[in-house]
Design brief:
With 949 residues, the chain is mainly α. It is 61% helix and 6% strand. The protein has 43 helices and 14 strands. The strands form 5 sheets. The protein has a 5-stranded parallel beta sheet with strand order 7-8-9-6-10, with helices on both faces. The protein has a 3-stranded antiparallel beta sheet with strand order 3-5-4. Strands 1-2 form a two-stranded antiparallel ribbon. Helix 4 runs antiparallel to helix 5. It starts with a strand and ends in a 5-residue tail after the last helix. The C terminus is likely disordered.
Length: 949
């Protein structure tokens, strides 16, 4: 966990920021963090939250705020925030609080000053100052900031920061690094007109960069201010610096060439040759203006700062590529970080927009090198002509300097390689919409959309805290529509700022339509759509056939933009081999036109998906779009059939579709994997069923809906599955698909049966039977009779069970389905056992056993043997019963089927108990119980834990 006080209050758990939305919650945490690992009295906390006159409910309200804060800070182990006598204590581990890290680094800098190790002083102060993100606790409410328990701590931190700045400039001056310091010192002297140290340092920097007149002006301005405000003269250190400047001026006058003596007879010496004047190296300061309302990205800034931290013995320049989709804030982050880190690069900062994406041609390295070299002091006439020679001259010019190079909007590595320095004192920050994986030696920072807190802070800074506070619901809708893109949020905020009379709900309504957001997110000459178009058009109009094909893939994938894609489903949609589809998906991920939240899963950002769909509608014919979607629907139908076969192995398989899937459906290794796939894909499957109905394809819609029965069975009839079934049934009815209607009524009936709604179950099964009879579907009729037999068995209706069961057996034999015959025979045997007719039950079980053995189905064989053993127990034939059950157990153990093993062990236990051997019964029940617990079968464990044993 990391806590941030040196700026807006933040909490980060190492993976994501933890949002503290309540102002009083932030005030509470701030007060606790100012006294970490120490008890803070209740009275103090109440005063910080409500002022010196808290309401009568303050104590109860404080407990509520504490409880909420505990939940936000919750981790494994002991709670961080706990009650102690008289107050609360927040545990903060070493290295978790930025103010403590700052203090530690400042102490190391202090030790370095005492030892006059100025390089260490500079390093420690720079690292300490990088922890600062703004005014301490800037997002706390004003009453909390002004409270006597809080304000002194903030003032102390601010004073320590000024101390760190002073020591950092002292170190730079001691090390002779004067270049580039003047602008920052001038700003600090202006902000702190009575702080003599900054004025002294500015005087020395100006003096040592041959700007003596300006240095003296700084002294006289400080002296006048001190006399006017305080009635005192500058202190000894400033006076000493002033004297140094004056002495240097006098020395420069004293070494001027002497005036020749014109006395008669005295030879006139020839004038001395002029002294060579020292040509100062330029210190370019080309960074664009920083974003005033920059918000969020604390973790990214910290990581970028660490990646650009100089090595003690640098061998190569530090290069960082910031990549991300259009509008995600790459340039804003790069510029903001560059301004924060410019003190590390006193020899200057270079900047160029490489125009890799956008109107006009990309800038050539040859022309940029000419500009950079002249900016660094190389005369234009001395510029080499060949690009390789220019790159070499650029590396030589930067050697020994500490310069930051910011290269914005790069297209590819070829454009960048000549612009990279050769020495380790420099650093390069690159922004690109591509990951630039082929750029060697570069660190990479991939930007994702802003988190909720970052979005809220940015929107608040754009349109005001009162408006966002008054309309929280509208704020949530705007943030959701903008999808975390800073560009979208800025455009939304600009519209609101230009329309102060608008309620936020008015803009939220404009953005609610998923088909109108791109047009609504524009202001002036900026639009989210235009930012996306830069990436897409550059790819579509590329002379490289591969990139043009990737652009077509992008818009075709937009036909399914609201859902996650795999390589296989994308291959079906695109009509390509899986390997080619996978390569295309990865290329689009590298171009930040797709996201990959987990391996093998690909999805669009909402706004990019909307743009891709618009491009498909504009550039592809309707026939092409429909054909692609139908290929995907066929693939989903095949995938659902695969999942259904794994989840409902005892049910009759769905009739195969005539059309073959364009890509291989998933190969599920077990029921858990198939179920997870159904859960993950359910929104996509719902859309697929709806789309199949719209295209008039009941054969697809009903197969997908019926195939989700295994999912519905596991989750006890979900409302979403019910909607899917109703939609598919309506489509089947409209197109007179009798088989489809039969299957949907059959599966709906089974679902009602699983929920113990037996009469509804019977109604749907009778309807299913009628449709299968009309369609002359023998297998469907057999399945319906088998379902009816099962329902009657559960209702204890032996006659109806046997009647329907016999008809099902007859029809399954006609269809040649021996396994289903065996299943129905077993069910009839169960009904007979329940009715107290074990002899008749044994006969049915043995018929089923013969079929299982004939077709070498081991799990069916073991189940039949277990049932026969139970019947033999009821018939008081112990030897045969135990022999049969031992054979069943051997098969179960060989198959490694724990659920079946538990069943057989329980039957053996019951048999021992029946024949009076309680010891053996206990032993087998305990084995069954252990097996059930390993399989996490609580119901089985409860059944097996028999009383009295």
């Amino acid at each position: 966990m990391r806590f941030g006080l040196l700026g807006p209050l933040t909490v980060h758990d190492g993976a994501a920021a933890r949002l503290i939305g309540s102002p009083k919650g932030r005030a509470l945490l701030g007060a606790l963090l100012l006294r970490p690992n120490r008890a803070v009295p209740l009275g103090t906390l109440e005063a910080v939250l409500w002022g010196e006159h808290p309401p009568a409910t303050a104590s109860a309200s404080l407990h509520n705020h504490v409880a909420r804060l505990r939940r936000i800070l919750a981790e494994d182990g002991e709670p961080r925030l706990r009650a102690v006598p008289g107050g609360y204590l927040l545990t903060v581990e070493a290295g978790e609080l930025d103010s403590e890290l700052f203090t530690e680094r400042l102490e190391r800098a202090r030790a370095g000053r005492l030892r006059q190790e100025w390089a260490a002083v500079g390093r420690e102060t720079v690292q300490a100052l990088e922890l600062w993100r703004g005014a301490p606790l800037a997002n706390l409410p004003d009453p909390a900031l002004s409270h006597p328990e809080v304000r002194p701590h903030i003032q102390q931190l601010q004073e320590a920061r000024l101390q760190a700045l002073e020591w950092r400039f002292d170190a730079e001056l001691r090390l002779g690094r004067h270049g580039g310091l003047a602008p920052e010192l001038a700003r600090l002297a202006e902000e702190h007109p009575l702080r003599e140290v900054f004025h002294r340092q500015l005087m020395l920097v100006l003096h040592r960069t041959d700007r003596q007149a300006e240095a003296l002006a700084v002294f006289h301005r400080l002296r006048r201010t001190l006399i006017d405000e305080l009635g005192i003269e500058p202190g000894p250190a400033v006076q000493e610096a002033h004297q140094e400047i004056l002495t240097a001026q006098q020395l420069s006058v004293s070494v001027a060439p002497p005036v020749p003596d014109t006395t008669i007879g005295t030879p006139i010496a020839p004038p001395a040759p002029p002294r060579a004047t020292r040509r100062l190296r330029p210190h370019p300061a080309q960074l664009p203006a920083d974003t005033v309302d920059f918000a969020g990205r604390e973790a990214e800034l910290e990581r970028l700062s660490a990646m650009l931290r100089p090595d003690p013995e640098p061998a190569a320049p530090r290069v960082v590529v910031i990549s991300g989709m259009a509008g995600v804030g790459k340039t804003a982050l790069a510029v903001h970080a560059a301004h924060r880190l410019r003190a590390r690069f006193p020899d200057g900062q270079l900047h160029a927009d490489l125009r890799g994406f956008g109107a006009g041609d990309a800038r050539s390295p040859h022309d940029l090198l000419a500009r950079f070299l002249t900016d660094l002091g190389v005369r234009e006439k001395a510029l080499p002509e060949h690009p390789d020679d220019r790159a070499a001259r650029f590396r030589s010019t930067l050697d020994g300097r500490r310069v930051l190079v910011l290269l914005d909007n790069a297209r590819d590595a070829a454009q960048l390689t000549p612009l990279l320095p050769g020495s380790g004192g420099c650093a390069v920050v690159i922004t690109s919409r591509h990951t630039l994986a082929d750029l060697p030696g570069a660190g990479r920072l991939c930007l994702e959309p802003l988190d909720a807190e970052g979005q809220r802070r940015l929107l608040t800074s754009l349109c005001g805290s009162r408006r966002t506070r008054d309309e929280p619901e509208a704020v949530a809708r705007i943030l959701d529509a903008c999808g975390g893109l800073p560009l979208a949020l800025r455009l939304a905020g600009a519209q609101l700022a230009n329309r102060p009379g608008w309620p936020l709900a008015a803009l939220a309504r404009r953005l609610d339509s998923s088909r109108g957001r791109l047009r609504a997110l524009s202001a002036g000459g900026l639009a989210v759509q235009d930012a996306f178009a830069m990436s897409y058009v550059a790819m579509r109009d590329s002379p490289l056939p591969l990139e043009a094909e990737q652009a077509r893939g992008f818009r075709m994938l937009g036909l399914w933009s609201g859902h996650t894609l795999s390589a296989e489903s994308a291959a079906a949609l695109l009509g390509r081999p899986v390997e080619e589809a996978h390569d295309l998906l990865e290329a689009l991920v590298d171009a930040h036109l797709l996201q990959t939240p987990s391996p093998g899963q690909y999805t669009f950002h909402d706004l990019l998906g909307e743009y891709a769909l618009e491009r498909a509608a504009a550039e592809e014919s309707r026939e092409t779009r429909v054909t692609a979607r139908l290929r995907l629907l066929v693939w989903y139908t095949a995938a659902v059939a695969k999942a259904d076969a794994v989840l409902t192995p005892r049910s009759h398989p769905l009739p195969p579709l005539e059309a073959e899937a364009a890509a291989p459906p998933p190969a599920f290794t077990g029921a858990e994997q198939a179920l997870q796939w159904c859960v993950r894909e359910l929104p996509a499957l719902s859309e697929a069923i709806r789309l199949a109905a719209r295209y008039g394809r009941p054969d697809l819609s009903w197969r997908m809906a019926a195939g989700l029965f295994g999912y519905a069975q596991r989750f006890w009839w979900t409302r979403e599955w019910e909607r899917c079934t109703r939609l598919a049934l309506r489509c089947a009815e409209e197109h007179h698909d009798l088989v489809g209607q039969g299957w949907l009524h059959s599966r709906t009936g089974e679902a009602h049966g699983s929920a113990h709604r037996m009469e509804l179950c019977l109604d749907h099964l009778h309807l299913a039977l009628s449709y299968f009879e009309k369609a002359d579907d023998v297998t469907g009729q057999a399945s319906s009779y088998a379902g009816l037999a099962e329902v009657h068995r559960r209702l204890g209706r032996l006659g109806e069970t046997l009647s329907c069961g016999e008809r099902a057996v007859e029809l399954y034999r006609e269809a040649g389905d021996a396994r289903s015959v065996a299943t129905v025979l077993s069910s009839m045997g169960d009904a007979l056992m329940a009715a107290g007719e074990p002899a008749a039950a044994e006969q049915r079980y043995r018929e089923a056993l013969e079929l299982w053995r004939e077709h070498d189905v081991l799990d069916g064989t073991a189940a039949a043997l277990t049932r026969i053993g139970d019947a033999l127990r009821a018939l008081n034939r112990p030897a045969e019963a135990f022999r049969t059950l031992e054979e069943a157990l051997r098969i179960r153990l060989r198959l490694g089927e724990r659920g079946g093993t538990a069943d057989t062990l329980e039957t053996i236990a019951l048999t021992h108990f029946h024949f009076g051997d309680q010891h053996a019964a206990r032993e087998h029940w305990e084995r069954s119980l252990t097996t059930g617990r390993k399989l996490r079968l609580p119901a089985r464990a409860a059944d097996v834990a028999r009383p009295g044993l």
